[in-house]
Fold this protein.
Amino acid sequence: MTPPRWTLALENGELAWPSAGRGLVLRAHAEADFAALGPERLVAVQGFAPAHERLVARGLTVQMAPDDDYAAALVQIVKSKAETLSLVAEALAHVPPGGLVAVDGQKDEGIESILKAVRRHLPVDGVLSKSHGKLFWLTRPDTLPEAVMGWLATPEPNADGFITSAGMFSPDGADQGSELLVALVPQLTGRVADLGAGWGYMSAVLLDEQDSIATLDLVEADWATLEAARVNVNDPRAAFHWADAESFAPEAPYDAIISNPPFHAGRAADPTLGQGFIAAAARMLKRSGQFFMVANRHLPYEATLKAHFGTGTLLAEIAGYKLYQAGKPKGAPRG
């Protein structure tokens, strides 16, 4: 296995990671090899629940956000350019003048674009290209340019008044699939869950429109996105769960589940994510429960729905989306 780029840069003497003081890793990857950075001195920041749990299991110190200054910082980029630039600005703000900030990512994740953006405002000390990606690093200046600090993303209302931030799914407003589901889903009753609830659009609308819902559990794996949902969904029937929808275990089975599941891992389409949500919904529902899912028309979910549910209906196919209703879950508890 090829060592990570930061290990190679350290071994060849191009990069000098400090031997004392705490190091910061923003958006730390769950399986990344941090041995060369002194893992006992690292603080890994990761708000995605499955990755957070794996990092904790490895014995790393894991937090939702940086808490102080650090001797050096590593940013592992994400698919959103705006979010990645915000992470770079955050890293620079948490190291002292003269401190090191390194940024690592794959070409297909957009590392070239991030490098160009940083170079427009700050000198870059070095670049290492390897394994279809790049690592670059820079020294934190005494004063950070205003343009760089302007990269910091803060939660703010979108055009519809919902609090969102860069990196969240559809931050500028509800996507058409979510709008389709809330417009056409029938009256729901009893215990309801929203799997992959995002910043709370579907839950907020349905709770506002349907008094028959007794409780609604919002299950979301991304911490920052769930925090936005807590602001956007102001209803005593709502409960918020920071968890991977595929492994979440509710206190009791649900009468209905709604979902607009994710279908990207990084920048690549990955229909297995939605397929996992379908299997999870079948496991969490009562035997009489109903599952309502919206998805892009091209995604291959019909066979998975048939495998996990005894009945299924295509409620609508509009504007490139399909809305499904499925019942008689095969994974539902007996009795």
Notes: The chain has two domains: 5-149, 156-329. The chain has ten helices and 18 strands.
